[in-house]
Amino acid sequence: MTASAALKPRTPAPMVEGEFLFTEDDFRKIAAMMHGEAGIALHETKATLVYSRLAKRLRALGLSNFQDYCALVAGPDGLDERQKMLAALTTNVTRFFREPHHFEHLRDKVLPPLLAAAKSGGKVRLWSAACSSGQEPYSAAMTILSLAPDAANLDIKILATDIDPNVVADARTGIYAESLLTGIPDDYRRRWTTPLAARPGSVQIADEARALITFNELNLIGDWPMKRRFDAIFCRNVAIYFDDETQARLWSRFAPLLPRGGRLYIGHSERIAGPAAACFEPDGITTYRLARELAR
Ligand SMILES: C[S@@+](CC[C@H](N)C(=O)[O-])C[C@H]1O[C@@H](n2cnc3c(N)ncnc32)[C@H](O)[C@@H]1O
């Protein structure tokens, strides 16, 4: 080796080949930020996905490599871009009446006694804890309306939250392309969606369904302002992106927010593990009932 070759700084090997240099060090920094900000565990097998989703951001920002992108998102002016990175790297896939057995369980087992109590002045509280663009809480709202068309006059509320402000803003509008309505039973669709004359091919969810839901941003690994309990919590298809420890902490935080007999609906490939597992009993497919309080 010549002396000049020995002095030349070595370019680190790319982790993914492409337009922008993306090294293992860049991947590690991005994975650490995603874990710290949102609890999301990014395994190295996701390197190509990370590259392709963030390459658009580098292009938009006029950057030429991931090292500069990492410096930007980690820096004092990086908050806005950190949110964009989070939105780009989270999966928002959802559908109306996804895993329909949960809504059947809600309709047949959970809601009847709660709605009877609501008609005598009681409260009904549900939480959709990673609601994405809103299909999950609107499915719950239509299920409630199918049993209690006057639900808007009762004390019934659904809290719907997500970490991503963009999906929360979309969800709040209640506007969807007609092509996304496939899971909604026909009579529900007729009753609680209205074609929008101003936006051909789109519908809006009916006011009586929208009135039941409050949408807010909330990070499941951050602080939760809620003090009151929920009769049922939907936390589906988000814990799967967290590592085991973060998942266990999440289940333990739900337990005190449910009364005995309160239900927790989780995603089809998720399971309750850690200290909270002893508190929950199965009550159907990926449906759990709080059977005992969490020991402190
Ligand atoms: C695959 S979607 C699931 C949507 C819906 N629950 C369902 O099952 O159809 C996952 C959602 O979790 C959200 N998410 C990811 N990390 C989160 C966190 N730390 N706190 C709250 N929401 C989070 C994402 O923004 C995304 O909208």
Q: What can you see in these coordinates?
A:
This protein has 296 residues and is an alpha/beta fold. It folds into two domains: 12-89, Chemotaxis Receptor Methyltransferase Cher, domain 1; 100-290, Rossmann fold, CATH 3.40.50. It is built from eleven helices and ten strands. The strands form two sheets. It has a seven-stranded mixed beta sheet. A three-stranded antiparallel beta sheet has the order 3-5-4. α2 runs parallel beside α4, α3 (47-61) crosses α5 and α6 (100-119) crosses α7 (135-147). It is globular. The N and C termini lie far apart (64 Å). The relative contact order is 0.11. S-adenosylmethionine (SAM) is lined by residues 38-40, 90-94, 98, 130, 132, 136, 162-164, 167, 219-221, 236-238, 267.
What are the salient characteristics of this protein?
globular; 296 residues; three-stranded antiparallel beta sheet; Chemotaxis Receptor Methyltransferase Cher, domain 1; binds S-adenosylmethionine; alpha/beta; Rossmann fold; seven-stranded mixed beta sheet; single chain
Largest sheet: 7 strands, mixed
Q: Could you state the CATH homologous superfamily of the largest domain?
A: Vaccinia Virus protein VP39
Q: Name every ligand kind in the structure.
A: S-adenosylmethionine
Q: Topology as H/E string?
A: HHHHHHEHEHEHEEHEEHEEE
Low-pLDDT stretches: none
Number of strands: 10
Mean pLDDT: 95
Number of helical regions: 11
Describe the strand arrangement of the main beta sheet, using strand numbers.
6-2-1-7-8-10-9
Number of domains: 2
Helix content: 40-55%
Structural class call reads: alpha/beta
Using only C-alpha atoms, the radius of gyration works out to: 22 Å
CATH class division of the largest domain: Alpha Beta
Task: Predict the CATH topology of the largest domain.
Answer: Rossmann fold
